[in-house]
Structure formats: structure tokens, C-alpha cells
Amino acid sequence: xxxxxxxxxxxxxxxxxxxxxxxxxxxxxxxxxxxxxxxxxxxxxxxxxxxxxxxxxxxxxxxxxxxxxxxxxxxxxxxxxxxxxxxxxxxxxxxxxxxxxxxxxxxxxxxxxxxxxxxxxxxxxxxxxxxxxxxxxxxxxxxxxxxxxxxxxxxxxxxxxxxxxxxxxxxxxxxxxxxxxxxxxxxxxxxxxxxxxxxxxxxxxxxxxxxxxxx
Length: 215
Description:
The protein has 215 residues and is mainly α. It has helices spanning 6-39, 41-76, 84-105, 119-122, 136-197, and strands at 199-200, 206-207. A two-stranded antiparallel ribbon has the order 1-2.
């Protein structure tokens, strides 16, 4: 080999070795994470699915009550409430996620759980899934579906952020309305004081109205 090609050959060898080492360690990391996921599948399934189930049912209960309240307001005001549109969109999103969750959760259960749970009536204890024995098939299934459950969890988190923004907006709107009412009340009180006590001129002297005894 010519001497002028030796540095190029050496550099090529070094790059090839580094690439092989990077690929090898990446394979080891993925293999180790796979083993950990399958080994701790029993604990992860119960914690992840129970927490996700509780959050989904909790959000659905909130939007159910919020929509009922918004509908009652719209009937009382004889016009369609603008609050129904965002609530309906978020409620539909929660319903879709709950349907996907139930379908994905079903293989991990000893029985199908299709009943409609009322979280306000039964509390969080009733939301715990009746999960079966974590055999190899379920561990492998968890390995392939864990990312999908995490995706639903992220979507629920975004829904919760939108709900908080919606509640904050409504609270600020109520505060502004209360402020307007207070300003109106203050104007009325000022007008009443002016009428009862007298009129205040520019020199800040007050002419008090007195009843004429002859009348």
C-alpha cells in the first residue's frame, strides 16, 4: 500500500470501529430496556393503567357536569351558550381516548370492564382494574403497547391543560363581571348620596337640602 494512503486507511478503520461500537452499545441499551420493561411489566401495568383510568374517568365526570351546567345556563338565558362548543370538543376527545384505552386495556384484564363507572359515586377504589396474571404473552404485549398508553397519557395531560385554561378564562370573566357590578353599584350609591345630602359644587362646598317646615 502506498505510504500516502496509510493515513486514509487508518482514519477509515477508526471511523468503522467507532460506528461498530456505537451500534453495539445502542443494541445493548435497547436490549436492556426491553428486559427491564418485561421484568417490571406487572408493576408498570397496574400503576400506569390504574392512574390513566382514574384520570380519564375523572375528566369525563368533570366535562359531564360542566356541560350540564352550561346547558342549564343556555336554557335560562334563552340562547345557545358559547361555553358548549369547547366543552363538547374536549368531551368528545375524552370519549375517544376512553374507547381506545378500554380496547388496549382489555387483554390485561381477567374480565372485560365495559361498565359505566360514576367516579363521584364510587370513588377511586372502584377504578382499579382487575388485572390478570402477568404471563409471557401479557409481558410481550405490554412491551409493544406501552408507548401507546404513554401517548394517551400525554393527550390527557394536554386536555387537562386546556381545561385549566378554560376554567381560568371563566374565572377571569366572572371577576370582570363582578367588577362591573361593583362599579355600577358605586355609581348608584354616589347618586343616592348626592340626592339625599345635597349637591357638591366645584369648590367642594356642599349645599345640604333641608325640608321646609312650612310645607
